[in-house]
Amino acid sequence: MYSLKKPKLGTDPKKGWPVYALQMTSSYIIKDFFLISNYRRCISYSSNYYDTQSNLINFIEKSKGKEVPAKKMMLANAKELTDWTEEMKNQDYHELYVHSFIGIWSSFEAGLENLFSDYIENDFSVAE
Predict the structure, then answer these.
(1) Which of 32, 112, 114, 119 lies at 20 to 30 Å from 48 by C-alpha?
(2) Is 3 inside a domain boundary?
(3) Percent of the chain with pLDDT over 70
(4) How far apart (Å, rounded) are the C-alpha atoms in residues 104 and 25?
(5) Which of 4, 1, 49 is CA-nearest to residue 29?
(6) In terms of residue numbers, what domain contains 36?
(7) Domain membership flag for residue 45
(8) For the whole prediction, is pTM greater than 0.85?
(9) Is 5 inside any structural domain?
(10) What is the DSSP letter of 7?
């Protein structure tokens, strides 16, 4: 699982061990599944970032009467982000879906390992 922060579950990992790993796995998978819509929204909000940055820099320069020191770098970064946003949209977010799939798959795989290890550790007949 990619996350370093475990979700808080209502199940005690010691007393509720038969279902704890399953609930943990489900939490990670569901989080990854819904996280993709947040990423898509953030990417779409960045589609006019270059124009926004450019307008902001122009406003600052007019109000202060001098050039913004890091103007070239700021506009280059904004252009790069805007271009990447367009690329993501043109490929129908393929790269984003691949990353999401990898996250979901790793959660599923780690969850299966946790389920097996919990049953082997806590159930003598399974361990035999």
Answers:
(1) 32
(2) no
(3) 97
(4) 9
(5) 1
(6) 17-127
(7) yes
(8) no
(9) no
(10) P
CA 15, 17, 18, 20 dihedral sign is: positive
Please state the domain count of the chain: 1
38: enclosing H helix or E strand: helix 17-45
User: Mind listing the pLDDT tens digit for each residue in 9-23?
Assistant: 888 888 888 888 889
Going from the C-alpha of 58 to that of each of 36, 50, 86, the distances in angstroms are 34, 12, 24
- Give how far Cα 5 sits from Cα of 8, 14, 54, 65, 92, Å: 9, 19, 37, 47, 30
For the segment 51-80, what is each residue's pLDDT rounded down to a tens digit? 999 999 999 999 988 888 899 999 999 999
- Measure the CA–CA gap between 84 and 17, rounded to whole angstroms: 45
* Residue 37 is assigned to a structural domain of this protein: yes
Q: How far apart are CA 16 and CA 11, in angstroms?
A: 6
